[in-house]
Amino acid sequence: MDNRRALLETQLPHAVIETDFPGLGAPVRRELVDEYALGDYTLWVVTDRVAPETGLVGALPFKGEVITSAALYWLERTADLAPSPIERVVDPQALILKPVANLPIRLRAYRRYSASLAALQSHRASPCLAGNLPATASDDDVLKTPVFIALVTDAGGEVSVLSRSELLARALAPPRRLDHMLELAQTLFDRGQQIAAEAGLELCDADYDFSLLEGEILIPAPLFHAPHQCTYRATDDHRRRLHELDLAQAWRRTQPDALIRPPVQLRMEMADAYLSLGSALVPGFSPHPGPVKNRLNHALSHLGLLA
Known about the structure:
The chain has helices at 2-11, 63-77, 115-118, 164-169, 175-198, 244-254, 264-281, 292-302, and strands spanning 28-29, 33-38, 41-46, 86-91, 94-97, 100-102, 105-112, 128-130, 142-153, 159-162, 201-208, 210-213, 217-220, 230-234. By secondary structure, it is an alpha+beta fold. α2 packs parallel to α7.
């Protein structure tokens, strides 16, 4: 543990909040990824920035590398279920994606009851695409079967939960494609729970975004089952927090008036949770310490993308 703490302390100044590569144009900054257009292809740089839903601003050492490594591992373990969207791995935190058309629906899977599901009990139409909300349940109860809901983000960034009938009424997906998305998400979530259990973890929930490859082949977005887009728990201690949002919320309860920039200790705890998951999930995972931006510049220059 002392060695890992020393590693994290050394890497703190190199954690990447955002990138900017002259010659590649201005990136689109998404929740975690800086996205650069490369003609028909797309360069994704997976940064280390803190998730915006924490209400905090900063970067966590090795976060982007853990997420990229986990994403590549999951794509390898599910290659029999769907093609990979990745054309080339450029760096431990950079990927070139194949030309795809992104779909507007995100599917979310839940294995346990939560406050998020409780809030849907009064939804005007049944929000579940699969599974059913229990009539009575306590927070954290394991559901009889996983529940799947659909999330759609409008132009203003507001996220809505839509039922199957609402999705079809808005022509967000034809019925057969929506069924295919749900079937693929269910299969991926089943596989994810099996593989997580092998690592001594429980996959509690997960988000699935989808794209169309070559106009018709449905594929998952690259970062499904990565630790920022789902919740893992240690099977030997369900109370152990392994998600940065849980850690941030716990800290906020003790520091309600704190500034939005997290203290070093909290950043270290968040980063340690990611390293723990990387080590548990990805066989042979070993982070690459040092200046991340220098490494990225070298990798992109080697490909001829930078002058």
